[in-house]
Amino acid sequence: MSNQHASTTRPPPARAALPAIIQGGMGVAISDWRLARAVAMTGELGVVSGTAIEVVCVRRLQDGDPGGHVRRALARFPLPRVAEQIIDAYYLEAGRAEGQPYRAVPMFSARPARRLQELTVAAGFVEVTLAKEGHDGAVGINLLRKIEAPIPFVLYGAMLAGVDAVLVGAGNPHELPGMLDALAGGQDVELGLRVQGASSAQDARIRCSPSELFDGTPPRTARPHFLAIVASNDLAEGLAGSPASRPDGLVVEAPTAGGHNAPPRGPRRVDERQQPVYDAQDEVDLAALAAVGLPFWVAGRTGTPASFAAARAAGAVGVQVGTAFALCRESGMSPTLRATVLEQVARGEVEVRTDWRASPTGFPFKIVEVDGTLSDPDVVEARERVCDLGALRVPYERENGALGYRCPAEPLASYTGAKHAREANTVGRTCLCNALLATAGYAQTRRDGRVEPALITAGSDLGPVVELLERHSNGERSYGAADVVAYLRGS
Q1: Whole-number pLDDT of residue 431
Q2: What does the DSSP assignment read for 427-456?
Q3: Distance in angstroms (rounded) separating the CA atoms of residues 342 and 462
Q4: DSSP string, 202-224
Q5: How far is CA 412 from CA 66, 350, 355, 359, 422, in A?
Q6: Distance from C-alpha of 133 to C-alpha of 490, rounded to nearest angstrom
Q7: How far apart are CA 435 and CA 259, in angstroms?
Q8: At 202, phi and psi to the nearest 5?
Q9: Which end of the chain is more exposed for a tag (fewer CB within 10 A), N or C?
């Protein structure tokens, strides 16, 4: 990040110490405001997902904004003109007609349109505002470093809503501490974009200017805690070693965690199911991590009281838990899909595999095998390739030096033709943007009536879900976020 006003030494975070249990920031709208609010009300850290939040916000409005929640939060947005424009553009009082597609949102580039900037700031504000309603608990927001262009705008909106913590993984988030400092003071920020095939002269940056958004002096905000999500001692030590990149804490994720995983550190090896093989060199040394001197939380197979106790005994503040929360009643997962997975869990028939190829990012991705979803090769084959959301597009340098954007999951003709990329990169790739929105109940309907299929992710260890169902389902095969917290606490 380039920001000439950012301080080199930062004041301590303005917030109180964070709780011992962090609810994972999962998927697209799986960790939505309802789930984060439910967890925060127990005294633990509820976390909303900031991934594609601008798309989620406007799709809720196009579905009629049940309960009026989005509009209620927009009424508190400090830029009333922007709130009015968003409602005028996207709100459908009766919701979409049967078979009506969602209205598209422009894709991000290095120079996003002013309306897209404003929408994204507002969407981050809305999600955090709703998560913080009616309680004094702590709320965080989770972002992926690899989805870089929206980051400063989502963060600024979340900070305007008083977010307590920012968690960033899936890449090296060394720019984030300085960015949070600057945004808290209403200063402009720039985030460098990683450009494929860039010459040494290429310097692509995305700029967020609070003063331009407010057409004058912007408000100051509290500076939230920043937690870096890491998968190695090397990255943790590197971030902690510089005042400019030093986070306020660390979340260390094992490869058993759901969603994207860091690739194995050694030579590429696969098992009989073509899953990546991890070994001892992929394990984080918790004693060495504790010596870094930052508070840390452990994630991946940490969803039991025994794992919680073990993490604390190793020096951790606590744990980050995802899968158990992703399958609770308050999560944003489509109720039909959640019920299907819970039924499989109860019967002992659920399978989770780590797929090397599915994600356009190139990172391994955990997939739950569910009929009718993109876990089925036939469903993958039947889906027409389309790239109309673009969250995982990456910039590349064209022959003329200009920036282009491409994704291995886009149509082959554009990826390998005009964009001159290798067809081998596209084999097995899945459009996670559309799939994960479908998992949260916001599936796009195509003009020929096809509906985008979903893709479900979860961690490797579903044992805690089995136990929670046995304790709390009462024949309904469901449990709540508060039940997860109580279980982890051993109560």
Answers
A1: 92
A2: TT---HHHHHHHHTT-PPBPTTS-BPPP--
A3: 10
A4: ---EEEE-HHHHTTSPPPP----
A5: 38, 33, 21, 16, 10
A6: 28
A7: 13
A8: -75, 125
A9: C
Phi, psi of 404 (to 5 degrees): -120, 175
Per the listing, tokens 């939230």 go with: 224
- The DSSP bridge partners found for residue 405 are 395
Give just the sign of the alpha carbon dihedral 41, 30, 253, 277. positive
Q: Report the C-alpha gap between 273 and 352 in whole angstroms.
A: 11
Q: Is 448 helix (H, G, I), strand (E, B) or coil?
A: coil
Burial grade of 345 (CB within 10 A; 0-12, 13-18, 19 or more): buried
Nearest-angstrom CA–CA distance, 320 and 298: 6
* CA 466 – CA 330 distance, rounded (Å): 17
Model pLDDT for residues 409-455, shown as the tens digit of each residue: 989 888 888 888 888 888 889 999 999 999 999 999 998 889 999 99
Residue 368 has φ and ψ, to the nearest 5°, of: -90, 130
Contact status, residue 143 vs residue 168, Cβ threshold 8 Å: yes
Distance in angstroms (rounded) separating the CA atoms of residues 95 and 222? 36
The two most distant CA atoms of the chain are separated, in Å, by 64
